[in-house]
Specification:
TIM Barrel; alpha/beta; Lyase, Ornithine Decarboxylase, Chain A, domain 1; 379 residues; 10 helices; six-stranded mixed sheet
């Protein structure tokens, strides 16, 4: 028998399920929030951990024609799934990868004068590349031209020192998930000033959370990411998105312990009563966050077993997690029963909040040892 690793049908593994209909419904919902703009999709980090080869065809079927990635290698994978889409590579431009931009029709996002002049130098040599996007920084201090450099580039376009036919002007919000943010208002004003310098270019600003702001941004292209995959774009408010991911793992062992028993590495949790504990086949090696632990002073994450919420107790191990199942009906529990870590009312953001991280990090770190199942229900 020829095997591939990880074994795709490992009957002992946890199961990560992707609801493709929910993914498409989330795309439709986000598109409806900005009907005058094209709605793209951020599929960097392997489509936020869910798999480019699964996610991109689903979004293409929903009508998406603009995809954003971080790396050239991701762009190549997207192109193979979406022959007719625009594929933007966010991490600038390097002439070392010029043939990939050409052969796979990848759109470079130029975020510095070095990017611009390297791109212009390559195309002057006769290499035909898709018209690039221009990225301007309005407050993140990460990638993108400063406002002063944007002014210089605008002037150099007028003097023909820069002859690149840009296809898009873009920037990125710092805290669009915070309603009434003064930083966001400042960025919107700063981007409006930049747009006046490049009035011939279509513009893109909105990520997932920005689509829920009370601002008329007048943009040509929006580019949601996290919300597509079921994350809440409005922290602290009810999640308007459908759940896309469900994660279930098996119980490996059940044991009864006395009150006063320390649990896990370092004994950070001590049972307060005679307790029944279940050991689950998941740990931090699978991307379940170490901060989800339950200690004597901190209630960690919950999981669903036999229809009840059960708290994680003790530190997570590399491959194992212990939960307290004392409140569960003993008759319904057995070795190999499945525990739900994401789904059945437990969302990405809840786990992340309990673990002191963000849902984005949880999502992209979900490991490769799970069986991955795509379900295609009618939407």
């Amino acid at each position: 028998m020829e095997l591939t690793f990880p074994l795709p049908d490992d009957p002992t593994a946890g199961v990560l399920t992707v609801d493709c209909a929910a993914l498409r419904a989330n795309y439709d919902s986000l598109r409806a929030r900005s009907p005058s703009a094209r709605t793209g999709a951020n599929v960097k980090a392997n489509a936020y951990g869910l798999g480019i080869e699964l996610v991109v065809p689903e979004l293409v079927s929903a009508g998406c024609r603009d995809f954003f990635v971080a790396h050239v290698s991701e762009g190549v994978r997207v192109r193979l799934c979406a022959p007719d889409a625009r594929v933007f590579v966010l991490h600038g431009f390097s002439s070392k990868a010029a043939s990939y931009y050409r052969d796979y029709r990848l759109t470079a996002v130029l975020g510095s004068r070095d990017d611009i002049f390297e791109f212009q130098s390559i195309t002057a040599q006769g290499l035909h590349l898709p018209d690039p996007a221009l990225h301007v920084d309005t407050g993140m201090q990460r990638l993108g031209l400063s406002y002063e450099d944007a002014e210089r580039v605008a002037a150099e376009r007028l003097s023909d020192a820069i002859t690149i036919p840009f296809s898009l002007l873009m920037t990125h919000f710092v805290e669009s998930d915070e309603p009434h943010s003064a930083v966001t208002s400042h960025q919107i004003a700063r981007f409006a000033a930049v747009r006046a310098l490049f009035s011939d270019l279509p513009a893109s600003l909105s990520n997932s959370s920005a689509l829920f702001l009370d601002h008329d941004l007048g943009l040509s292209l929006v580019r949601p990411g996290y919300a597509l995959y079921g994350g809440n774009p409005m922290p602290g408010q009810p999640n308007p998105m459908q759940s896309v991911v469900t994660l279930r793992v098996p119980i490996l062992q059940i044991r009864d312990v006395d009150a006063g028993t320390p649990v896990g590495y370092g004994g950070e949790f001590t049972t307060k009563r005679p307790s029944r504990l279940a050991t689950l086949s998941i740990g931090y090696a699978d991307g379940y966050p170490k901060g989800a632990k339950g200690t004597d002073t901190h209630h960690g994450a919950d999981v669903i077993i036999a229809g009840r919420r059960c708290p994680v107790v003790g530190r997570l191990s590399m491959d194992l997690t212990i939960v307290d199942i004392t409140e569960c009906d003993a008759e319904s529990l057995q070795r190999d029963a499945m525990a739900t870590l994401i789904g059945d009312g437990i969302g990405l953001d809840e786990i992340a909040d309990r673990a002191g991280t963000i849902g984005y990090e949880l999502l992209v770190h979900l490991g490769q040892r799970f069986r991955r199942v795509a379900i295609h229900r009618k939407g």
